[in-house]
Amino acid sequence: MGTKYKGTKEEILALDGYIKLSRAAESVSRSINAHLSDYDLTISQFGTLEALYHLGPLPSGELGDKILKSSGNMTFVIDNLVKRGLVYRQRREDDRRCVEIYLTEDGRSLIHQIWPSHLAGVVRTMNALSKDQQTQLTALCRALGLSQVIE
Fold first, then answer.
1. This prediction's pTM
2. What percent of the chain has pLDDT over 90?
3. What is the mean pLDDT of residues 85-92?
4. Distance CA 46, CA 96 (A)
5. Does residue 44 surpass a pLDDT of 80?
6. CB distance 107 to 77 below 8 Å
7. Where are the beta strands (DSSP E) in the chain?
8. pLDDT above 90 for 5
9. Adjacent-strand bridge partners of 100
10. Which CATH number fits domain 9-146: 3.40.47.10, 1.10.10.10, 3.90.550.10, 3.90.79.10?
């Protein structure tokens, strides 16, 4: 369903695109991430574990940038993962102001267990589009994302 707003053609086109993009993103995210509740993980917690699994230890600020979360939200996410024994914080020796986040063995084991089925879900969901459409979608999303200046 598009907008019911009665504006200019430019406004209606932009609103319709935005509504469809938002609904598609929410629907795809819900479908792909539904299994995370089986592991008592939020999307942010999973994103944190996945980033550390693939990128290695990261400062909490950089980790927040990777998963698009604020520093306040990252503190909450990391606190909960620490309580579960899935990650730990460690100050860098060369810069005591910087706190890096590391996976524990339990965290590594959990993400190692979850990752294959998560990836299969991403592939399955995205296969609703042809390979050419996936390539086009990737390019369009990148162009839209890079065009935004966050102030």
1. 0.85
2. 71
3. 93
4. 27
5. yes
6. no
7. 58-59, 87-91, 99-103
8. no
9. 59, 90
10. 1.10.10.10
